[in-house]
Structures are given as structure tokens and as C-alpha cells.
């Protein structure tokens, strides 16, 4: 089930796991399994990928990185199929991604003996890339009446939806804001007029989707199995420069 109406969909290179995710979600639709259970499964998959990275089993690490991406899409698919959207699930998903991303980079730092400062810089770049992608994507979804679980501006605690506990939403929102707030403010500061822009062309969204977490994890896995692990941290630092390129393109197209 797409997050956008058919006429506004674009080719998302980060969403390669969607077909399998949809199959998993449909298989779980009539079970007692919840989207939170699926989110927990992608956390386990991510931790297994980290374990295999540390022990030099890079093909296994690639497999579990890809599985993590598939399951990361499956929890949202299941929520939409069961018609059980929740801020709890949305924040828990994002917080889990943030922590796993940090552990992925720290694991790569450890196995490559890289400079710790460069590893942190790569992590910041990784998060800024994902934030720009999500910023544009959520704007697009809200503009075209697509899925609206995520908000363009996460600047206040949302009201709990049916079946949620407000206290749980409050706590998760605060953790989410601590993790992502700085990145949201940076990206908004760089392109605050994006929400007022006339349109986001499909080809630009496809280009920006290379900043999506699924594609980032695919690249990490491929670098590992191809013997290029020492280049992962420098790559993500350099690739972050495209943030400014994509923002400039968007701004020029809406002048």
C-alpha cells in the first residue's frame, strides 16, 4: 500500500524491499502480530547485522541489513492494512533506526580503525541525508493526501490516537525530539521554503531517495562484501555534499 496516490508516486530507490514487505504484511494481517512486533524484528535483524560485521562475516551482514530494510517497511504496511496508525509505532520505529544507525557507524569505525571524529561526522551526514529525504517526502505526502502519520513539523507532542496511551506518546516524542530535533532544524534552516514550493518533481524525489535508509544500508552492505569497508565512512561524508546540490535544485525549480 503506497504512501502516495498513484499519480504522484515516484521511483524510490530506497524502497526496494516494499514488495516483500507487502507480502509479509498481508501474511500477518489476520494474526495477532502488531506493527510494533515487526519493528522489534527489524531491531533484531539490525543487531545481527552488527554482530556479523564485527566477526567479519560480511555476506551475512549484507543479508541482515537488507532484511532489516524489508522489515522496516513491513511494519508501516501492516499498520495501514490493519488500519492501526499510531504515533507510538512511528516514534518507536524512528528511534530504533537512529540507535541502529549509530551502532552501524560505530561498528564500521571499529573494524576499519578509522578516526573517531570522522566516524561521528559520517553519522551526522547519514542522518542529515535521511532527514532531507523524509522532509521532502512528508511534504509530498501531506500535499497530495497520502499517508499522514508523519508530520512535516514535529514541534509539539501529538494527541494519542485510538488504542494508544498518551503518556507513552509523550515519552517517545521527547526521545524522538532529542534524537532528530537538531537534524530537523538544520535541514529546515537550509530549505525552510520547501513546504511553500509549487512542486517536487518525481525525478528529483528519485534522486533524493538515494538518501533513504534502505539505500544507505544497501551501500554499506555492498561496500563490506566488495572489500571496500575502509571507504564507507569517507563516502558518506562526501556524499553528504549532495544535500546542498539537491536543495539548490529544488529552490531553482521553484523560483
Overall description:
This protein has 255 residues and is an all-alpha fold. It has a single domain, classed as Four Helix Bundle (Hemerythrin (Met), subunit A). Helix content is 68%, strand content 0%. The chain has 10 helices and no strands. It has helices at 18-28, 35-54, 58-81, 87-112, 116-143, 166-190, 202-208, 213-225, 232-239, 242-253. α2 packs parallel to α4 and α5 (116-143) packs across α6 (166-190). The longest helix is centred in the middle third of the chain and has 28 residues, at 116-143. The relative contact order is 0.16.
Give me the secondary-structure topology.
Layout: H1 18-28, H2 35-54, H3 58-81, H4 87-112, H5 116-143, H6 166-190, H7 202-208, H8 213-225, H9 232-239, H10 242-253
Helix pairs in contact: 1-3, 2-3, 2-4, 3-8, 4-5, 4-6, 5-6, 5-9
Total number of beta strands: 0
Shape assignment: globular
Any idea of the CATH class? Mainly Alpha
Q: Helix fraction?
A: 55-70%
Strand-residue fraction? under 5%
Summed over residues and divided by their number, the pLDDT gives a mean of 92
Number of helices: 10
Question: For this structure, what is the CATH homologous superfamily?
Answer: CDP-alcohol phosphotransferase transmembrane (TM) domain
> What is Rg?
18 Å
Please identify the structural class as seen in this structure. Answer: mainly alpha
Terminal residue distance: 34 Å
**Poorly predicted regions:** none
Label the CATH architecture.
Up-down Bundle
Tally of structural domains: 1
**CATH fold node name:** Four Helix Bundle (Hemerythrin (Met), subunit A)
Q: What string, H for helix and E for strand, traces the elements in order?
A: HHHHHHHHHH
Largest sheet, described in full?
A: none
Amino acid at each position: 500500500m503506497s504512501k502516495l496516490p498513484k499519480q504522484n508516486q515516484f521511483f524510490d530507490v530506497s524502497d526496494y524491499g516494499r514488495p516483500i514487505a507487502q507480502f509479509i504484511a498481508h501474511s500477518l494481517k489476520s494474526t495477532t502480530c502488531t506493527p510494533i512486533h515487526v519493528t522489534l524484528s527489524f531491531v533484531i535483524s539490525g543487531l545481527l547485522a552488527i554482530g556479523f560485521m564485527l566477526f567479519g562475516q560480511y555476506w551475512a551482514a549484507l543479508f541482515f541489513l537488507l532484511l532489516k530494510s524489508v522489515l522496516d517497511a513491513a511494519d508501516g504496511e501492516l499498520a495501514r492494512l490493519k488500519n492501526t496508525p499510531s504515533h507510538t509505532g512511528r516514534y518507536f520505529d524512528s528511534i530504533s533506526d537512529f540507535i541502529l544507525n549509530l551502532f552501524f557507524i560505530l561498528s564500521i569505525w571499529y573494524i576499519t580503525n578509522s578516526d573517531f571524529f570522522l566516524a561521528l561526522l559520517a553519522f551526522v551526514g547519514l542522518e542529515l541525508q535521511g532527514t532531507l529525504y523524509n522532509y521532502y517526502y512528508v511534504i509530498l505526502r501531506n500535499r497530495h493526501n497520502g499517508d499522514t502519520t508523519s508530520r512535516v513539523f514535529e514541534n509539539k507532542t501529538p494527541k494519542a490516537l485510538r488504542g494508544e496511551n498518551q503518556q507513552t506518546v509523550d515519552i517517545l516524542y521527547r526521545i524522538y525530539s532529542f534524537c532528530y530535533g537538531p537534524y530537523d532544524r538544520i535541514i529546515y534552516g537550509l530549505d525552510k521554503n520547501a513546504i511553500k514550493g509549487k512542486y517536487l518533481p518525481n525525478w528529483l524525489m528519485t534522486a533524493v531517495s538515494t538518501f533513504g535508509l534502505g539505500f544507505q544500508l544497501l551501500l554499506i552492505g555492498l561496500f563490506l562484501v566488495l572489500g571496500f569497508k575502509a571507504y564507507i565512512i569517507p563516502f558518506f561524508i562526501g556524499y553528504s555534499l549532495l544535500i546542498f546540490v539537491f536543495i539548490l535544485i529544488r529552490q531553482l525549480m521553484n523560483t
